[in-house]
Structures are given as structure tokens and as C-alpha cells.
Amino acid sequence: MKRLFSTSSSTVDSKEMKKFQLLAHKWWDEEGEYSALHSMNDIRVPFIRDTLLNMSNNHQLGNPLSGLKILDVGCGGGLLSEPLGRLGASVTGIDPLEDNIRTADQHKSFDPVLAKRVQYKSSSLEEIVEESMETFDVIVASEVAEHVADLEMFIKCCDQVLKPEGSLFITTVNKTQLSYVLGIVIAEKIIGIVPEGTHEWEKFVPPEELQHLLESSGFSVKAVNGMLYNPLTGSWSWTESMSINYAVHAVKSRGQGQSSHTDPLVRDAT
Ligand SMILES: C[S@@+](CC[C@H](N)C(=O)[O-])C[C@H]1O[C@@H](n2cnc3c(N)ncnc32)[C@H](O)[C@@H]1O
């Protein structure tokens, strides 16, 4: 398959990397800077699992995601890779920051179940495109889109490494006045539940813009769901409003001239 663009540019924003570098050892502190990402697992893991299971009528009890190759892009310390591995998926977590991968690898070693199911690699998405064309059944990019340098390139790379009819899950932050006040002023500067400087409002992504980018890259958007964080309880819930955080599920088109996909977990996609 031909590449859609040259990789002379990059999705990696070095300013963003410097911020994450400072906290690379803090990923698994459940009460620390990444506590909101820990608790986000309570809704994002079931969202990914149930969406995939609803697209399939063939799954293994106890290991419902077994047989699926998942790419966790911007995996950080592996907070999402690990639970997906425990659900039976074969997970590749990539992150441009070597220290994040070191933390992820070290934490993975505490659970022998993950040894064969989860692999990490220090890499950007564009660096693995060549070797991973149409390799993955599923891509997750959770809380990453708002940190990349070039979102269009990022989505196109996702398209290239995803199998036809594969699923892409993105969670990110909308660009609204409310997300500025709650996501930056209150969350970062006043109550400090997110490390100060983590987010730049200019990089937040309106859902219509993301949807447009996805559709113009050959994806069909299946769901866009609002997410709400309650700082008093430290918990997340689904909400109709997408004015702050939201999650997207999109499916890559079947591709020209291809007949029905044989992967059991995407067979029934509508
Ligand atoms: C807020 S963290 C989310 C980590 C993880 N996805 C989670 O939800 O627990 C954002 C992560 O994206 C990574 N990142 C930033 N830019 C990236 C890019 N262009 N490609 C891949 N990962 C990137 C950062 O290094 C960081 O680990």
C-alpha cells in the first residue's frame, strides 16, 4: 500500500514531551497527578470492551477480547494497556517517551498474565507505520489527540496501521469556554487534580472537527459520547454534553475491492 504522506514532519510536539518527561515515574500513583486517568478506566475500559463485544457474536468467556490485536497509542505508563491485556487482547503500547515505556514495562512485570499479552515500544505512531500496515484490529488513543503536533497526520497514521473495518477509540477534550474554565483553570490551577501545564486550550479538539478529520480519512464515526469528571468523588460518568471531555468510536472503511472481513469481532459492525 502507498503511503499517504511523507514522514518528514512528526506528530510529536517536543514541548509536550518535556511536560510528560517530568512525570514519567508517576503513572502508577493512584492518588497522584494521574489519578483522573486511573479512574477514567472505570468508564473507558467497559466502553471499549462492550463496543467490541457488540460487534461480535464470538468471544471467549473470561477473555472477551482474545484474538484482537490492539494498539494503544500514547500509552504513557500503560494504565489502559494493562486492563485491555487482562481482557485477553494482545496489546502493543507505544509512546514517544522512553521513560514512560520504562515505567510501563516495569509495572507490567508485576502481573505474569500480562507477560505475553502486552508489549511496549518507545516510538511515535508514524515511526511504526511502515512495519505495521493494516496490522491492528483496534487502536486506542486515550487523552492523546490534544497533545499531538499534527492531528490530521495522526489520524492518517491510525488509518494506515488499522485493518479494514478495524475500530478506533479516541478520548479527548473539547475546545469550549467550559473546558478552559474547568479543565485548565480549576483542574490545573485551583484544585490541582491535573498537573499544571498539562493542557493547552489551543490544542483541544472540537468533536465536529475530529469527526470531520475522521470521515475525510475514511472512517465512519459510530459514537460520540460526552464524559464528565466529578472532582469531589474522583469518578467519571457518561453525559449527553460533550462540552468538556468526550469519547469517539470510529470504524475504518472496508477498503476498495475488499470482500467481507473475516475477523469475528468486527463481522457484525453496522
Ligand atoms: C495524557 S497522557 C495519556 C496516557 C494514556 N493514554 C492514558 O490514558 O493513561 C498522553 C500521552 O500521550 C503521549 N503522546 C504525546 N504526543 C504523542 C504522539 N504524537 N504520539 C504518541 N503519543 C504521544 C505522551 O507521551 C503521554 O504519554
Q: Catalogue the unreliable spans.
A: 1-7, 257-270
What is the CATH topology descriptor? Rossmann fold
Estimate the mean pLDDT confidence: 90
Q: Based on the structure, what is the oligomeric state of the protein chains?
A: single chain
N- and C-termini, Cα separation:
26 Å
**Whole-number radius of gyration?**
18 Å
Relevant CATH superfamily: Vaccinia Virus protein VP39
Tell me about the largest β-sheet.
Answer: 8 strands, mixed
Structural class, by secondary structure, is alpha/beta
The CATH architecture can be given as 3-Layer(aba) Sandwich
Q: Order of SSEs, N→C?
A: HHEHEHEHEHEHHEEE
Bound molecules: S-adenosylmethionine
Describe the global form. globular
Helix percent reads 25-40%
What's the short version?
Belongs to the class I-like SAM-binding methyltransferase superfamily. UbiG/COQ3 family. This is Ubiquinone biosynthesis O-methyltransferase, mitochondrial. The chain is of the alpha/beta class and 270 residues long.
Structure description:
- This protein has one domain (14-174, 200-252): 3-Layer(aba) Sandwich (Rossmann fold).
- The longest helix has 20 residues, at 35-54.
- With 270 residues, it is an alpha/beta fold.
- It has helices at residues 14-22, 35-54, 81-86, 98-108, 125-128, 151-161, 177-190, 207-216; strands spanning 69-73, 90-95, 118-122, 136-142, 162-173, 219-230, 235-239, 245-252.
- It binds S-adenosylmethionine.
- Residues 11-12, 16, 20, 37, 73-76, 79-80, 95-97, 100, 124-125, 142-144, 147-148 line the site of S-adenosylmethionine.
- S-adenosylmethionine (SAM) binds next to helix 1.
